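Reminder: ligand-aware prediction takes two inputs, not one.
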Amino acid sequence: MPGRPAHTAEEFLPETRDLDALADAAHGCKGCDLYLDATQVVFGGGSADAEMMLVGEQPGDQEDKAGAPFVGPAGKLLDKALVEAGIDRDRVYVTNAVKHFKFTLPERGKRRIHKTPGRTEVVACRPWLLAELDAVRPEVLVLMGATAAQSLMGSKFRLTAHRGEALQLPETDDLEIAPEVAVTVHPSSVLRGPLEEREKNFDALVADLRFAAGLRAHS
Ligand code: URA
Ligand code: SF4
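Here is what comes back for the chain with uracil:
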């Protein structure tokens, strides 16, 4: 069957593992079905020698159109949170657990609705995330939201139980680095939550980011 999807991105990874080569190769990825309906792949972006790498879930509507991560509403909120936490966005690397936008189209002409990626897609897309980690070699890794956290910490990982903790990646990954790991909520969850809780949830996100930035000093 022509175009039959593979089960993982692995075979689409290039031999050269610098970020530019990775981002180029990702445009040809058919590691799961998500490339079929999305506009384009949205690879990570930011400083190639960042000390901090932040991982979200998947590109949203605006990221899908722009081809860059965290440029929509969640990205604006993240920018604000980084500023408040004293972290320079120009000095971090930002990416997603899944590199294509997953959505449903309720009716013709209507806005595309974000759909949470499933375990299959998260696992399929993981080789890109691991390759980015190996290329950037951050000292601190911040996993934002359950999708990012479960991609790297395992499917049983409970985010809420581990906020504010200094974590390490499980040893099962063939990574040559061992960054300090912190988890926090996804910036979109602050926007989606009740209005009266927004400030509190935003402050908690900032506190988690500040905690993560502080981990660097101990590594
Ligand atoms: N949400 C994400 O997880 N990633 C983006 O790039 C945008 C919104
Ligand atoms: Fe490849 Fe990831 Fe896109 Fe699936 S979501 S096609 S694995 S880049």
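The mean pLDDT is 93. Residues 9, 26, 29-32, 34-35, 41, 98-100, 121, 124-125, 128 surround iron/sulfur cluster (ligand 2) (CB under 6 Å). We will return to this case in the review session.
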